[in-house]
Specification:
1 helix, globular
């Protein structure tokens, strides 16, 4: 929050600083693609296998639905899953071996509505390169795994990248920081073992997915074991880092699970000046592992706030409904949520949700376990447990 924490220490308990084809045709690897690996892991492929042809492999079946099945929050039409009955392109030709890293990267670059045909069983596709969205390929881009596809960064790389201000991905307007496209939807997918450590573009963060500009929503998806840089006062988002959403409209996280992420700040999600609506979701076992808060205390690298969610900026909102945030941890402030509206215009609402066992080792707002909050008024909490 860039230097404002010292002015608000009176509100904390204890403070220590603040290859595809168009028109529905298959996108797949050549028939000479190498044999599949056996699991999601950080281990490199055999030396005889070119990294650009890493293939999908059978994975363990999904046992439970993503998100909070008991959540009853209403989901507005704009936050629901997109229709993929007529995809622009399909990754794979019906077998796991045809669903390759190369095919995913190529399909994402071409954009449109993207689905998978990888056979009847769940598969993991280990990416050999980050899939990057080209800004002129929308306006709508949908990536739908059908509940059976895991995209893995193998603990080595970010999985997906969208940045309307990155010239390498094409400028499509004169005001890249506030444009209404691409409209990205991630649905029925798992993002596992993404890692953006060392990637300093736009300040870093976004271990699994980085988004700047346009709009993004996540529906019925999982983010597990993702990572980003362990230090830094303001970077974050082991699963998801979002900046500059069009017209200040919110990011939607719907019926999704964020588990086991770790980053300097925001073990699940992180943003600056961006609003969030989190519906019927679960955020658990995530950690803000930095030390020194923001601004960084003397002699520290900074970070450690927002075990699950880290939000900073001026006017923005956070709304949780039908959501569980539990067993997250922050070395500094906000074991569950860190919320700082620098100009005191931001608001938070917690509805029919449960926040529990989210320790903050450094500081949190009095009376709000696991939350550090600076905004327009106290958070509006209804039919919820915060303990």
């Amino acid at each position: 929050m860039r230097g404002r924490l010292a002015a608000v220490l009176t509100v904390v308990v204890a403070a220590s600083g603040c290859a595809g084809a168009v028109d529905g045709t298959a996108v797949s690897a050549p028939t000479s693609s190498p044999a599949a690996t056996t699991s999601v892991s950080a281990a490199p492929p055999p030396s005889s296998v070119p990294p650009t042809t890493t293939t999908a492999t059978p994975a363990q079946p999904v046992i439970a639905p993503a998100g909070n099945p008991a959540g009853r929050a209403a989901v507005p039409p704009e936050a629901r899953a997109e229709d993929t009955s007529k995809p622009s392109r399909v990754i794979g030709n019906g077998t796991a071996a045809s669903c390759t890293s190369q095919a995913v990267v190529a399909a994402v670059a071409q954009g449109g509505v993207i689905t998978f045909s990888c056979g009847p069983d769940p598969v993991t596709i280990t990416l050999a390169a980050t899939a990057k969205i080209r800004n002129a390929t929308g306006p709508k881009i949908v990536l739908d795994g059908g509940g059976k596809v895991t995209l893995s960064g193998a603990g080595k790389r970010r999985i997906l990248y969208l940045n309307t201000c990155d010239e390498a991905q094409g400028h499509t307007t004169s005001h890249c920081q506030d444009q209404d496209h691409p409209l990205l939807t991630l649905q029925n997918l798992t993002f596992a073992d993404g890692n953006s450590t060392g990637d300093a573009v736009e300040g870093g963060g976004g271990g699994a997915v980085f988004v700047r500009g346009g709009r993004v929503k996540v529906v019925n998806s999982r983010f597990v074991r993702n990572r980003c840089d362990p230090n830094g006062p303001d970077l974050g988002g082991a699963a998801l880092r979002v900046l500059s959403q069009s017209k200040g409209l919110p990011v939607y996280l719907v019926s999704s699970t964020f588990d086991g992420g770790a980053c300097a700040n925001g073990g699940a999600a992180s943003s600056i000046g961006v609003s969030w609506v989190v519906l019927n979701s679960v955020l658990s076992n995530n950690s803000a592992i930095g030390r020194g808060a923001n601004p960084a205390r003397a002699g520290t690298p900074g970070g450690g706030s927002g075990g699950a969610i880290y939000t900073d900026g001026n006017k923005f909102t956070v709304r949780l409904a039908g959501t569980i945030i539990e067993n997250n941890h922050a070395n500094e402030g906000g074991g569950a949520i860190f919320f700082v509206s620098n100009d005191r215009t931001g608001t938070m609402a917690i509805e029919s949700s449960t926040l529990r066992r989210n320790p903050s080792d450094g500081f949190e707002t009095r009376g709000l376990k696991g939350i550090f909050f600076i905004g327009a008024t106290a958070p509006a909490i209804t039919a919820s447990t915060v303990q």
